[in-house]
């Protein structure tokens, strides 16, 4: 988790007297409001400073490992997770961030969730999910030179007549 979508989740846990169910399976880093020029917590303005200070406080209170600005492995959550072996094949990974799905490249089932879902996962280590719908897409013809599968997928996602 990171400093932007976690404060409300921790506030919810606190309000209901709930602990983080498995703090050893949870980690946090500061990555959304962090300066690329300095490790100064004040470098990106008042709101950024408050969010990062809240993350420090919440991780201490709830026993969650924090890769703060001074930690040698602090970085973008979706980069450092795989680098540090937090992301492994077969795992289910969620984070309050739309880029979480990138962990799928490492064989994990990974998706972004909302802030209220972050609270629920922290409290229960579960997340209610409906069965995903199946969609068949057929691409006919031959791709022009230089066109990759990624280009086709991105173009398909842009043509909204499929849904």
Structural description of this entry:
With 163 residues, this protein is α/β, with parallel strands linked by helices. The protein has one domain: 2-Layer Sandwich (Aconitase, domain 3), CATH 3.30.499. It contains five helices and four strands, in the order αβαβαββαα. A two-stranded parallel sheet has the order 1-2. It has a two-stranded parallel ribbon with strand order 3-4. Helix 2 links the parallel strand 1 and strand 2. Helix 1 crosses helix 4. The two termini are 31 Å apart. The mean pLDDT is 92.
CATH C-level class is: Alpha Beta
CATH topology: Aconitase, domain 3
Element-by-element helix/strand order: HEHEHEEHH
Shape: globular
- Could you give the distance between the termini? 31 Å
Strand order of the largest sheet: 1-2
Please describe the biggest sheet, giving its number of strands, its sense, and whether it closes into a barrel: 2 strands, parallel
Protein name: 3-isopropylmalate dehydratase
Catalytic activity: (2R,3S)-3-isopropylmalate = (2S)-2-isopropylmalate
Domain Aconitase/3-isopropylmalate dehydratase large subunit alpha/beta/alpha: 1-156
Pathway: Amino-acid biosynthesis; L-leucine biosynthesis; L-leucine from 3-methyl-2-oxobutanoate: step 2/4
